[in-house]
UniProtKB/TrEMBL annotation:
Keywords, in A-Z order: Hydrolase, Metal-binding, Metalloprotease, Protease, Signal, Zinc
Signal peptide: 1-21
GO MF entries: metal ion binding; metalloendopeptidase activity
Pfam families for this protein: Peptidase_M13, Peptidase_M13_N
Species of the source: Drosophila virilis (Fruit fly)
Membrane topology listed for this record: Single-pass type II membrane protein
Cofactor(s) the protein needs: Zn(2+)
Protein name as catalogued: Peptidase M13 N-terminal domain-containing protein
Peptidase M13 N-terminal domain: residues covered: 72-430
Any one GO CC term of the record: plasma membrane
Residues of the Peptidase M13 C-terminal domain: 478-671
Originating gene: Dvir\GJ25736
Length: 678
């Protein structure tokens, strides 16, 4: 897994599971400047627009900076020192604020605007019309009378039997007749929800052209630390949505929460695919007999028998072992209440939460590709795409030159030539799903104009093809299988990371380093490298390890780790982007150099490059979260990523005139692929 752009790594791993909660907790980072810019940039007098846009960008950049700090001492503080005052992290959510949230918020606003454009049968794709219809019905959900809403929820529960907490007073819930495995299998079949167990189709880890079924642990829950609050929330849901009597609701909520905690203890954040265990049908039947017959579960969920020779994968074997222990100590009525609660939870709507946020989150979870595609069609103007492609080509060229230069003489001839070929074949793809026929995909989906719960049921029922929750990463990634760098559509938004009005320094410092980082990750797989090259690689890696373990964050040293790929990619990325920018400058007519400065900033173009790089990583994380972050080694903290990568770069020291032996210009510098960029 590559380092995730957003800080919540577990979130990225379980992307689908968490999009919703993540969105609802989207912090209110200040998008004011960007919104202003969007209005202004629609103006048509380009000299005027350019002037205003540059002033705005300069104001934004300066607002985060703390210029009284010494850039050679603490460049992150120099570039981002005021960020926490402008965008403070909270004790609760948001526990971190960062620049990527600005981008995400801007993107969310744009998606909202797209959804709110009136449906137009002439110009909208049929699938888009359905999406807008769904969204509109969601916005009106409060208009559903309470009684009808409750009746619909009870109908959904009744599709799968009886929920103990809903038994009428004096009535006995028949524990004997309850088959939990069949119940979760039927729910999976009907609505695609993975409760207690997961069933999913995904590529074979060893042959990606082949699709396999994975059975096992569902995505790990994001465990909320405040359990009392969770109990309270569930109790209110049971009472308000289902009419469960208060004391029973409270007791049931406590049992549900306890069970969830217990299950979570056995869960891991491992992604589907690698490390899964191949299983024959017979093995699936017997592995956890007599308690848990996974073959039975799969057959019920698929509604077809498995062939004796069919091979499946078991996802997180240790979870299934843990599940046996949990099942043995859980009374049937608790298990049943838990399962029905998880089912209905997907259908509850919160009358007190903001409507738009809830509906937008729903749409993003249920139609992620279609929504990205709408944004893609809106923002992927040829000029934008060619701007991005120009940066890409420049960075690829830089890497090519680096790999051919004497600074990479440590690569053997064979390995070097292999890397050059691989680099040449690497492609850039903006993840807009341009190839998907959405009309075809949503052909069978029938919606009603007003009835949100009906529509939600229809959409969930429609999308239970067990297909891989299509990975449309909302973060830049490198895909080794296809040898391509994937950029999310959100990066196409004008006036964030790139703008035709800004100096190119900013484009290379931000967008350029992001692209270069993923390109650098294409060298993470070192299978096929010869032994001598690997030994040299190891020496150079050791330099990074020593360097990073001497960095201190909030007074603590970073934990020593062999996992240096991310740090190495950071270093490579800023070097490649800088080389690309240098090359751009070299070809710039001297009369045009003036455009590489910003008003009200005395910084040189090179300095602007480095500030825009550092500001990409501006963040504020509250202390509690911060400690956890470094203890869990969820990657190098942002401040040290910036310090680590720039301290190895002579070009940085000369741009800011840093004396030898200052923190940003240490004597010993580590290099993997490039050096002597001056
Ligand atoms: C530019 O804007 C002015 C007024 O806002 C308008 O009259 C003019 O037609 C516009 N020109 C173009 C090329 O859009
Ligand atoms: C991968 O699977 C396909 C069929 O799905 C098969 O044709 C191909 O030979 C397999 N490749 C390898 C390397 O096993
Ligand atoms: C497991 O389930 C399969 C499919 O339903 C069934 O054929 C088999 O008899 C079951 N095995 C056991 C031991 O229950
Ligand atoms: C890169 O690949 C293209 C074909 O995709 C080929 O024509 C070109 O010669 C290659 N360039 C180098 C430097 O290998
Ligand atoms: C997409 O699918 C629809 C419905 O199946 C079909 O009519 C249409 O021709 C397809 N569009 C393209 C571009 O293939």
């Amino acid at each position: 897994m590559r380092r995730m752009w957003f800080s919540v790594v577990s979130c990225a791993l379980l992307w689908l599971g968490c999009v919703r909660s993540h969105l609802l907790s989207q912090p209110e980072v200040d998008t004011h400047i960007q919104l202003q810019e969007q209005l202004i940039s629609q103006h048509n007098d380009s000299a005027y627009v350019q002037r205003v846009m540059r002033l705005a960008k300069s104001a934004e950049m300066r607002s985060y900076m703390q210029p009284e700090l010494d850039a050679c001492d603490d460049f992150f503080g120099y570039s981002c020192g005021m960020w926490p005052k402008i965008n403070p992290a909270n004790a609760a959510q948001p526990r971190e604020t960062n620049y990527q949230q600005l981008l995400a918020n801007g993107y969310q606003h744009k998606q909202q605007r797209l959804l709110e454009q009136p449906a137009d049968a002439d110009s909208d794709d049929v699938a888009v019309l359905k999406l807008k219809q769904f969204y509109a019905s969601c916005l009106r959900f409060r208009q559903t009378p309470e009684a009808l809403y409750r009746q619909q929820l009870l109908e959904i529960a009744a599709e799968f039997g009886r929920m103990p907490a809903l038994a009428l007073p004096g009535q006995q819930w028949p524990a004997d007749g309850f088959d939990w495995l069949a119940t979760v299998a039927h729910i999976k079949r009907k609505y695609g929800l993975d409760i207690i167990l997961l069933l999913q189709q995904a590529p074979d880890p060893h042959n990606k052209t082949q699709s396999r079924l994975y059975v096992g642990q569902p995505p790990r829950f994001v465990v909320e630390p405040n359990r009392a609050a969770v109990v309270q929330r569930i109790a209110i849901q049971l009472e308000q949505h289902l009419g469960v009597e208060a004391a029973l609701a409270r007791r049931t909520a406590q049992e549900i929460t306890d069970l969830e905690m217990l299950l979570a203890k056995g869960m891991s954040t491992r992604p589907i695919g690698p490390l899964a265990l191949p299983r024959s049908t017979v093995e699936l039947t017997n592995a956890y007999a007599p308690t848990l017959n996974l073959t039975h579960y799969v057959e019920l969920a698929l509604q077809r028998p498995l062939q004796p020779e069919e091979m499946l994968y078991e996802h997180v074997v240790t979870y299934q072992a843990h599940l046996l222990v949990v099942l043995a100590q859980t009374p049937p009525h608790v298990l049943a209440n838990y399962i029905f609660h998880k089912l209905l939870d997907r259908f509850y709507y919160d009358r007190s939460a903001p409507v738009v946020g809830q509906c937008l989150a729903n749409v993003r979870e249920l139609f992620p590709e279609l929504l990205n595609n709408m944004a893609y069609r809106q923002y992927a103007a040829p000029a934008t795409l060619s701007d991005i492609d120009a940066v890409w080509q420049q960075i690829k060229l830089s890497f090519h030159n680096v790999l051919e230069s004497s600074s990479t003489d440590w690569l053997s001839v064979a390995t070097r030539s292999h890397l050059l070929d691989q680099l040449n074949a690497t492609r850039l793809l903006i993840n807009g799903h341009a190839q998907v026929n959405f009309t075809e995909r949503y052909k069978q989906l029938e919606l009603k104009p007003q009835d949100y719960l009906f529509n939600l049921r229809a959409v969930l029922a429609h999308s239970t093809q067990f297909a891989t929750p299509t990975s449309s990463p909302n973060v830049p990634t490198y895909d080794p299988e296809e040898n391509q760098v994937l950029l999310p559509v959100s990066l196409l938004q004008p006036n964030f990371l790139w703008s035709r009005f800004y100096p190119r320094a900013l484009r290379y410092g931000s967008l350029g380093t992001i692209i270069a980082e993923q390109l650098a990750h294409s060298l993470d797989r070192r299978a096929g490298w010869d032994a001598a090259t690997l030994a040299e690689f190891g020496k150079r890696k050791a330099c990074f390890r020593h360097q990073y373990e001497r960095l201190r964050f909030a007074g603590e040293y970073l934990p020593a780790t062999e996992l240096q790929d991310d740090n190495i990619a950071d270093n490579t990325a800023v070097q490649l982007a800088y080389l690309g920018y240098k090359n751009y400058l070299a070809n710039l007519a001297s009369s045009a150099l003036i455009t590489e400065y910003l008003p009200q900033m005395s910084h040189s173009p090179q300095q602007l490059f480095f500030i825009s790089y550092a500001q990409l990583w501006c963040n504020d994380a509250n202390e509690q979260f911060r400690d956890k972050q470094s203890l869990l080694a969820a990657g190098t903290p942002n401040a040290l990523r910036v310090q680590g990568a720039l301290a190895n770069l002579d070009a940085f020291a000369s741009a800011f005139g840093c004396a030898n032996e200052t923190p940003m210009n240490p004597e010993q510098k580590c290099h993997m692929y490039a050096k002597n960029l001056n």
